[in-house]
Write a structure and sequence with these properties.
By secondary structure, the chain is α/β, with parallel strands linked by helices. It is 39% helix and 20% strand. It has a single domain, classed as Alanine racemase (TIM Barrel, Alpha-Beta Barrel).
């Protein structure tokens, strides 16, 4: 199967309200261009320098999503062009994105990463940390970021019931967040959950954005 046919097969099954992020990390530009030529415009990378290099080389109507863990000292390298940062798990990181966005006269959209998996290795906040962040005076002062939703990763397991439980929990947290009054920098519309192995479960649980790599580009 070609990248194009993989992509068309997946997009044909996605509901209209679900956005596809093609996870292109470690893939060469010609592979991304094959997806681009098949109509894909949103790509997800997990290393800022790699994303920066691809952005420089590829068409400028692409939306670049940073889906990996972000180190604060690297934010400046993507601040001129990144469309959405998925993995924001601290006020410190949010403040740095805000600072770099301000330098570039931009407002950068961010998703707050929630820890829903049973594995210790996954990054993310719990509900108390989320509430504390959103209630803090420092957050309210941030004018160059906008929190547009939440992101989370389920446990890497064959147990579909557990995956469903974790995604359902994240949807509940998202619904609570969505019921809060919108402010200048809080407008929750996106729930990013689901990857190649579990995106159909995620969509069934209310995901509005899925991150799919290997099912499009093949395994590394």
């Amino acid at each position: 199967m070609s990248i194009q046919s993989n992509l068309l097969e997946i997009t044909s099954t996605l509901p209209a309200h679900v956005t596809l992020v093609a996870v292109s990390k470690t893939k060469p530009v010609p592979d991304l261009m094959e997806a681009y030529n098949a109509g894909q415009r949103i790509f997800g990378e997990n290393k800022i320098q790699e994303m920066e290099a691809k952005h420089a080389e590829m068409p400028k109507d692409i939306e670049w999503h940073m889906i990996g863990h972000v180190q604060t000292n690297k934010v400046k390298y993507m601040a001129t062009f990144v469309s959405l940062v998925h993995g924001v798990d601290s006020l410190k990181l949010l403040a740095e994105i805000n600072k770099q966005a301000k330098k570039n006269n931009r407002v950068i959209d961010c998703l707050l990463q929630m820890h829903i998996a049973e594995e210790e290795t996954k990054f993310g906040m719990d509900e108390n940390e989320l509430d504390e962040l959103l209630a803090s005076e420092e957050f309210k002062q941030l004018e160059n970021i906008k929190v547009t939703g939440l992101m989370g990763m389920a446990t890497f397991t064959e147990d579909e019931n557990q995956i469903r439980k974790e995604f359902t929990h994240l949807k509940t947290v998202f619904d609570v967040l969505s019921s809060k009054p919108e402010t200048r920098n809080l407008k929750p519309v996106t729930l990013s959950m689901g990857m190649s192995g579990d995106y159909n479960i995620a969509i069934g649980c209310g995901s509005t954005m899925v991150r799919i790599g290997s099912s499009i580009f093949g395994h590394r």
